[in-house]
Design goal:
The complex is a heterotrimer of chains A (260), B (358) and C (316). With 260 residues, chain A is α/β, with parallel strands linked by helices. Chain A contains ten helices and ten strands. In chain A, helix 3 runs parallel beside helix 6. Chain B is an all-alpha fold and 358 residues long. The two termini of chain B are 12 Å apart. In chain B, helix 3 packs parallel to helix 7, helix 4 packs across helix 5 and helix 12 crosses helix 14. In chain B, a hairpin with a 2-residue loop joins strand 1 and strand 2. The chains are: A alpha/beta (260), B mainly alpha (358), C mainly alpha (316). The complex binds adenosine-5'-diphosphate (ADP) and magnesium ion. Adenosine-5'-diphosphate binds next to strand 2 and helix 1 of chain A.
């Protein structure tokens, strides 16, 4: 099932500590272009921390991250966004006071160029851009089937829809690498199925590389091309879903065999 | 069913993006503007125009300014008075020293100076947010006012320290100072109000407005979509202070006709903050409604007992005013954070369905 | 050159030449600093326990003092007046909790902050409606006379009321510190912000924890109000001076009780020294209006968590 493309993102020997807590220890893996890459592991294993390192929220004490061939140690989140990394959060991070449309429009932020004067007077690029990008945003809205909530303030939407709007905002940026932190957590079966469908078609139709964190093993097996398993901040295993499922360490970790 | 949305399908995104999507709304705003320009000067009494409309319009500009910073960008300011003072003092300084500069250039220029000062006091927002920032804006409030009072350079060494506004004309009509005609003053201020309200609306629906709101709602996620927090906050500080500066300049030049520090003390800062809260956080319309409401309430309280033949001591009225303001603030924050503007919208929705109740 | 001398050399020369004056300035500063500390203390209590920045704390001081003085003017014995006022402040805490804080639970801090501005305005109007707006002297038998103290380098003038205020403040702070560290209720209050379980485990219903915290803050406000009133009379000005507690908090850190105390003393002493040695000679005076705020702003740049506050880490 693997589709070996070029390496898009390479994480090498990442270590991250918070005071005495070692959230990540010497973790390395590669994400290839066009694949769906899953990060799994028990709660507190360091999965979210890993994504936070990748898009610049956390700065690992050791290790390097190479994205599109350029190596870096530190980066601010907006720089990561500018390079083509988008993400969603485990706890929804939408702009609650804004409508769905406005939220998704913020995904286009980095592609807009109008000057302050053009925006203030709503002329020239100020006006043109609003309309052009609105068209792109409407495509995303259609793609994720959220037309009917376009003008609703997102604070009033149910949880499942909020997750979808968050995905829409990430997609509106047309990212090369999309990071999804537990996109299906807390959803009912139907919502999960929808979300799986969206993740797959994002990958197939738009060709976006995706790294996702997920707890539901069934979902992970269905969706992902490759999986990395973290436990207590360390890499336990890496491989295709089938390889990982057969790995004794992974089985132990998941069945809660004591660590000593 | 005169007023309706249904059945008026938009056929393009550009129509949907338009500022006022319902034709009746558009007509209403145009009609209101036309009436304000033509009707009011013809019909309104001198009292109404100079003692009510003029200050309400000028304070609306200040409220717009604060709303940009607090309502849209989520950064609380208790220094509105100081930024208004900056506009007033610098407008005076520029107008009296570069006498050939037309007054309609002087006032925006004073606004730009206020914007620069606003940026300086906004810099701590690099490290802090929300109410911590209130302290930085209090620093602006107390320090700037002290500076303008203590440094005679700002008032050209005027002995009294409270110099009269210099008389200036536009198209041959005097618009500033005590001798200016009521209509001329009113129209001069109105021109600024219309332009600035329109610009505020444009900014709010453009990229910059969305970045302000994103910072307000969740600054971490804002960075994620590529918004750089510091420049975004500073732009809100700059534009907000520009509005406040223009308002302060107009207040001194056209309303009180002199440049005096007491007009811009901390009470002014609170007054404008209340206008924004009551009118509606993050609403252009709300800035106007709030300004009118908060300005008129004390006038109403002072005259209402008289209508019923009572007389109430004026300090009692002041106390009632304080209590009422306090209650209103809490009420609106709890019940309707979008303020009068939202109530207006709800009323319109009712109207839209009228005469059918559902 | 001349100016540089006046800025960098002369003030220090003055301090060395006339140490008695410096000590007097310092004492004057520290006594107003104690008042800032007490207001700031009320802020910290509420902020630690509920994360709310109570802008009205300054007005609480005024309101408590107004009630106290008003009752005494009606002929109520000071001790009884004190007890009744505590009752009023507790009732106030209850009302604030039910009518303002609960409906706004889970709102943005900035919204809650604005709501406390509303409380401040309401109380200011309410207190004055009840008791009138005149300046009222507080006569609780705090002696106020000039004491002369013969130090080695000259004679120093001290007001006995200032000394008294200092002693009361020290007592209050110690009591509160002990209360917070050694009683279960105090520990629960400290813990409640991040651990509701702790509060429950000592049997404080979570429902009422905010009421308790606000009532304790009301008590601190009353103590501050009485002392302040004894010095200056109870009047409006109290509430504007109380604004200075905000920069004090920036200096001391929003979560630290010792920080509030030390921050207050630093601000009080700092602004008096600055006014006397730099403000009056060089800047035409009245620098006390802004000194504290500008210092706080500089702090915001370089140490936003204050001297003693905990570093704020964002979690995603
Ligand atoms: N900002 C932070 N400060 C302190 N500790 C943190 C922070 N973020 C994560 N951690 C710690 O790092 C470890 C890994 O957390 P996380 O990455 O959220 O795990 P996961 O997403 O796999 O459940 C946990 O022990 C957590 O407490
Ligand atoms: Mg996680």
């Amino acid at each position: 099932m693997t589709r070996p493309g070029d390496i898009l993102l390479s994480v090498k020997d990442i270590s991250l500590r918070f005071g005495g807590v070692r959230a990540l220890t010497d973790v390395s893996f590669d994400i290839h272009e066009g694949e769906i890459f899953a990060i799994i592991g028990p709660n507190g294993a360091g999965k979210s921390s890993m994504l936070n390192c990748i898009n610049g929220f956390y700065h690992p004490q050791e290790g390097t991250i190479t994205f599109k061939g350029a190596q870096r140690r530190q980066m601010r989140p907006h720089e990561a966004a500018a390079q083509g990394i988008s993400r969603t959060f485990q706890n929804i991070a939408l702009f609650k006071g804004m409508t769905t449309l406005e939220n998704v429009m913020t995904g286009r932020m980095l592609k807009m160029r109008a000057s302050l004067a053009e925006q203030a007077l709503y002329i020239g690029r100020g006006r043109r851009e609003e309309i052009e990008h609105r068209e792109k945003v409407e495509e995303v809205i259609d793609f994720l089937e959220i037309q009917s909530i376009r003008k609703t303030p997102v604070g009033r939407l149910p949880y499942g829809l909020q997750k979808r709007v968050e995905l829409a905002r990430a997609l509106a940026a047309e990212p090369e690498l999309l990071l999804l932190d537990e996109p299906m957590a807390g959803m009912n079966v139907e919502e999960k199925e929808d979300m799986c469908r969206f993740v797959l078609s994002t990958n197939h139709e738009l060709g976006t590389t995706i790294a996702l964190i997920e707890h539901d093993m069934g979902v992970v097996m269905d969706l992902s091309d490759r999986v990395v398993v973290l436990d207590y901040g360390k890499k336990l295993a890496e491989g295709t879903p089938d390889e990982v499922r057969g790995n004794q360490d992974v089985i132990d970790a998941y069945l809660g065999v004591s660590h000593d | 069913m005169l007023y309706r949305e249904a059945g008026q399908f938009k056929t393009s995104y550009s129509a949907d993006q338009a500022m006022l999507t319902i034709p009746l709304d558009r007509w209403f705003v145009f009609a209101l503007a036309a009436f304000a320009i033509v009707g009011v000067p013809l019909l309104a009494s001198e009292y109404l125009m100079v003692s009510i409309l003029l200050p309400v319009l000028i304070l609306s500009i200040a409220a717009l300014g604060l709303n940009i910073l607090t309502g849209y960008c989520g950064q609380l300011s208790l220094g509105t008075g100081a930024f208004m003072a900056a506009g007033a003092y610098l407008a005076y300084k520029i107008a009296t020293n570069i006498t050939w500069l037309p007054i309609w250039v002087v006032i925006p220029l004073a606004g730009l100076c206020a914007a620069a000062i606003g940026i300086a006091f906004g810099l701590p927002s690099l490290r802090i947010k929300g109410f911590y920032l209130a302290v930085a804006t209090l620093a602006a409030q107390f320090f700037l006012l002290w500076l303008f009072v203590k440094v005679p350079w700002f008032v050209n060494d005027s002995i009294s320290g409270v110099p009269p506004a210099p008389p200036r004309t536009v198209f041959g009509f005097q618009v500033t100072g005590a001798a200016a005609g009521d209509e001329a003053k009113y129209l001069f201020v109105l021109a600024f109000v219309i332009a600035l309200a329109w610009i505020a609306r444009n900014l709010a629906r453009s990229r910059i407005g969305r970045s302000w709101m994103a910072i307000r709602d969740m600054d971490i996620a804002a960075e994620l979509v590529g918004i750089r927090p510091l420049p975004t906050k500073l732009s809100a500080f700059a534009i907000s202070s520009f509005y406040c500066g223009v308002a302060g300049a107009l207040w001194a030049m056209c309303y009180i006709n002199s440049v005096e520090p007491t007009a811009f003390d901390i009470n002014r800062s609170f007054q404008v903050l209340f206008m924004v809260i009551v009118g509606g956080l993050g609403s252009v319309l709300g800035s106007f409604l709030g300004a009118a409401f908060i300005f008129l309430l004390p006038i109403f309280l002072n005259s209402a007992p008289g209508w019923f033949g009572y007389s109430v001591a004026s300090d009692t009225i002041t106390h009632i005013e304080f209590m009422l303001f306090g209650v209103l603030i809490i009420f609106f924050l709890i019940v309707e954070p979008h303020g009068l503007a939202r109530l207006w919208q709800i009323a319109k929705e009712k109207l839209r369905l009228w005469p059918f109740p559902y | 050159m001349e100016t540089l001398y006046l800025i960098f050399i002369d003030p220090f020369v003055q301090m060395v030449v006339e140490p008695a004056f410096l000590v007097e300035v310092l004492i004057g500063g520290l006594t107003s600093g104690v008042m800032y500390s007490l207001v700031a203390l009320g802020f910290v209590l509420i902020f630690k326990a509920s994360g709310i920045f109570n802008f009205a704390q300054g007005i609480f001081v005024l309101f408590a003092a107004l009630n106290f003085v008003g009752l005494m003017d009606l002929g109520v014995h000071p001790i009884l007046a004190f007890v009744i006022t505590i009752g009023i402040m507790t009732a106030l805490a209850f009302v604030v909790d039910r009518l303002v804080l609960r409906p706004l639970v889970n709102q943005d801090p900035i919204i809650l902050f604005m709501a406390t501005i509303g409380i401040a305005f309401f109380l200011e109007g309410f207190g004055e409606t009840l008791w009138g707006g005149d300046v009222r002297p507080v006569r609780v038998g705090i002696p106020d006379e000039a004491l002369f103290w013969e130090a080695g380098f000259g004679e120093i003038l001290v007001q006995s009321a200032d000394l008294f205020a200092g002693v009361i403040a020290a007592f209050l702070v110690t009591t509160l510190a002990l209360f917070f560290h050694f009683t279960p209720v105090g520990r629960a209050l400290r813990a409640v912000a991040d651990d509701h379980q702790a509060a429950l485990s000592v049997g404080i219903p979570l429902n009422n924890i905010w009421v308790i915290v606000w009532a304790v803050a009301g008590f601190v406000a009353l103590a501050a109000g009485i002392m302040w009133g004894a010095k200056l009379g109870v009047q409006f000005a109290l509430s504007t001076i109380a604004l200075k507690a905000l920069p004090v908090l920036i200096l001391g850190g929003f979560t630290s009780i010792p920080g509030a105390i030390i921050g207050g003393l630093i601000v009080g002493a700092g602004e008096k020294v600055f006014e006397n040695y730099w403000g009056v000679p060089l800047l035409e005076g009245a620098t006390e209006d802004w000194f504290a705020y500008i210092v706080a702003m500089i702090f915001l740049f370089f140490r936003p968590q204050g001297l003693f506050g905990e570093k704020i880490i964002e979690r995603v």
